Structures are given as C-alpha cells and as structure tokens.
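User: quick one - fold this with FE2/S2 (inorganic) cluster bound?
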Amino acid sequence: MRTDLRPKKWAAKYPELGTGPIPAEPCISPDYFELERERVFRRTWINVCRIDDLPKPGTYFVRDLVVCKTSLLIIRGTDDVIRAFHNVCSHRGNLVSPYESGACNTGLFCPFHNWRYNDRGELIGVPDEESFFDLDKKKHGLTPVTCDVWQGFVFVNLAPKPEQSLRAYLGGVGDQLEGCPFNDMPLFQTYKVEEKTNWKIALDAQNEIYHLPFQHPLLIGHTFLLNEQKHTRLLDVRLYERHTLWSCEFVEGYKLAPMETLLGKIDRGGEGLRIKQLVGKFDFYVLFPNMVIILFRGPAEDGFATYNFWPLAVDRTIWEIRYYFPKANHVGRRISQEFFKCLIRDVQQEDSIAHEALYTGLASRAKTHMIFQDEEITIRYFHKVLEDHVGYYRGAHAAAR
Amino acid sequence: MAAQALPAPFADLAPHGAWALEREAERTAKREASTVEDVRAFYDAVFPRMEAMVAHLERFPLDALREPERRLLWLALSVVEVSNLTERYRRREAIRAVSPLTYRSVQ
Ligand code: FES
Ligand SMILES: [Fe+2]
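Assistant: Sure. Structure tokens for the protein plus FE2/S2 (inorganic) cluster:
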C-alpha cells in the first residue's frame, strides 16, 4: 500500500460524516463535562493500566479515576485473576490504599482502623470485631467493578451492568490488533503531563498530522511523508464502530541529524520483534473515549506507545504517555531507544504548549465552531461518536448546534 | 572519588562527569539547569567519542555493567538527552520548553 497524495479522499470514503464545522462548546462547557462523566466515562470501557503495572500475582495498582469521582484498586490475585474494586473501605469509606501500587499477597489493610481485605476483595479482618453489631464480614467486601483484560491491557466499566463485553466494545480494533506481541514489549517510560486544557482538545491535537510541519518544524517536520506542496497525507483512515485508525509513512532518505547517523552505526538492531498487522510505519488508534495506542515500525524493530487522557475538570487534564519497547539486547539498541523516546518527548512538549493555548483560545468564545479539513477526519468522527453518547444537542441545546 | 570514575580510556571526559546521571528526570533537570553554552560544550566534547564509548560498552553484558561502565552509559544517555537542543533547536528557549513541574517523568 502506498500513500495516495491527492486531497479529499477521506470524505469520499466516509460521505455520511459530512464536512461542516464542529461546535466548540463541548470542549469548554462545564455542562457538557458533567454529561460526559455520566454518559461516557461511567458507561464505557476505560483502560486503567497494563499487565506491567501488576508484575506478579499478589500485586495491585491504584488508578484515581477523577472524572468518575473514584479511586480504583486493580488487583492481580494470587490465583492470577485480575479484579477491580473501588478503593474504598467498607467501614467508614477511607481509601484502602494510599499508594500507587504495592503487594497484597498478605492482604490489604485500611490505614484508618486496620480492616483487612484479601486479594479477592473479601473482608477478612476487623479489629475489635466483638464491639460491632451484627457485622457479617461476608457482606462487606470491597465494592467490585467490572474488569476485563485484552492483550495485557486492563479495562474497567463502571456501569452496574455493562451493555457489551470488552471484546465486543473493542470491535474491529480488537480484530485488527489480535496477536500483536504487546506482552513482549515491556514498559520503558511513563510521563504524566498535567495540562490546563480540556481532555478532548489534547486528544484532538494528537489525532492528526496536519500540524507536524508547522508545530514541530525542527523536530519532525520533515520525517513524515509530505506531498509536493509539503503537506502531510495519511496512508489510510479506518473508522470503526466508535474507534478510529489513521496510519502514515515516513519519508525515505530524509536528512539525518548527526545523532541519527551515529545510531545507524551503533544500533545493530534488536531481536527483530515485529507487529504483523501494522498498516503503515506509524499507526494511531484512538480507542474511544480516552485511549490511544500507537504502533511504530523502526528500522530495527517495532514498539508501541499509549496515551490516556485523564479528565480532571472541564479545563484540567492529565496526559499520561507510556512507551513500550522490546528489551534492549545491547548498548547501541538501548541508546537508540533513548533517542527515539527523547525525540518524541520533545515533540510532545511542543504539543503540550498547543493543548493549553487551544483551550485558552476556545474558552474565550471568540469562535463558536472549529473547522476540520479532510486529513483531520478522525477528529470529526470522534466528536460525532462522543455526541452520540452525550446527546447534548439532542436535548435543550438542539438549536445551538 | 573512585566511585565517580569513568573507564580508563575515557578518563579525559572527567570534567563532564556531572552529566553521568542514572535517571532521565535527573538528566532532564541537568539540561534545564544549564546554559546553552554549557550544553554545547558538553555535547561537543562527548559526542565525537560516542562510537568509541559504545564499542567499549559492547564488551560487557548490558544488564551487568560495572560502575565505571554504568557511568559511561549514563554519560552517553545525557548526550542523547541534549542532542535535540544542539542539533535541531540551537535556541535558548528550547532549554525549557515546558515547566518540569508539569512534565513529570515517572520512571
Ligand atoms: S475506615 Fe477503613 S478501617 Fe475504618
Ligand atoms: Fe504534535
């Protein structure tokens, strides 16, 4: 497959999406944010961690899900089953674990009065139990949350009864990525960027490559495939039931920086671990609502990255970035991985500035709408899927659209 | 002082030993606390030696490097840390594009 450099291909592929402007209000409205909380984050499957965060049976990981106003305990039991619970004590509601992660093979102790839970969330110990009244410990385990694991990614669904299984929810993306060697690529680095922006603005700003020559001219402005007028062109776009994929290629033979030339000499490559179903050199999946999986094909071997955009408030977001590479088998490879990570990190620092400036601009209400071009079609689709869940414009605000 | 030593063939890089930092967050903090001139001097001194440094390090298993070799690897990783600044930006403002308080390296 080769990149077709002509314009306006994607609207032709997905004509039902339309080409009109998109309202800015959902990105700045506190009302919209409240609806997202109820109708998106409390009803869909949310990726909370990876198996890397639960390195062996009898360990746990805590995910503060601020948008759902809760903290979650993800436990890999000594039986090797992964379960999720609200991190909330049955006694008086204290947070059971104040830590980000830890071991729980001997149980979890609430720090307030030392109530003890086992690795299946069951209440197994109450100090001074005889002073309580008719306390049936069996009825007072941790409150479970629906949890499932796909390819080592742990997801939860806060709905009392999720409408779909995780696998059905992932749909075509699940099919496409079946068999990817994610589990052979350990976590290499995590960043958390706290931004004064709406979570969708940050996600949207990552969900296109139109901006690369302009926002990142010195770092990666010339590495992604461009047409003759120096504009980016996607290799492929796929819109799934609610998720999206875009894919692109790199320019062959672009001018290398001195460090890249050096890496060409010192990096003998890895074990050659490849991700088979790769569409292009750089595949960007958005898993609705707030997760991104990026697969990248390096000269020597493949790797992947994930983003999770964690809404804190309508104007506050944590952008969590993680890189995963096959374990380096020699020094040259290790240095090469560091280079790639630092390059993308510096690109993301430039992005972070944009995420905040975009929010400031939209929050001024000087503009009521955003305009999207054909190569930004996955953003257009994301906002459609979001509004299908939220229904803001189906209700009292129908006229405002 | 011995704990600070680099392998003998690279003893001349000792004036840049302060860049031999284990964690990325430390290397980033060092870059951000430096002037462009400091960063440039470090890069100009160590980058030309990188190939020899890697050739030296390749003689040892990556996950069992001795202390001087570990420090040599960290020095190499610091060259990578600053290379976007010296090779691409070449500008002062790039030293600190985003506050390190907001861009938090977790591992
Ligand atoms: S609140 Fe947890 S033991 Fe009292
Ligand atoms: Fe960007």
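One thing worth noting: Chain A touches chain B through 32 residues (CB under 8 Å).
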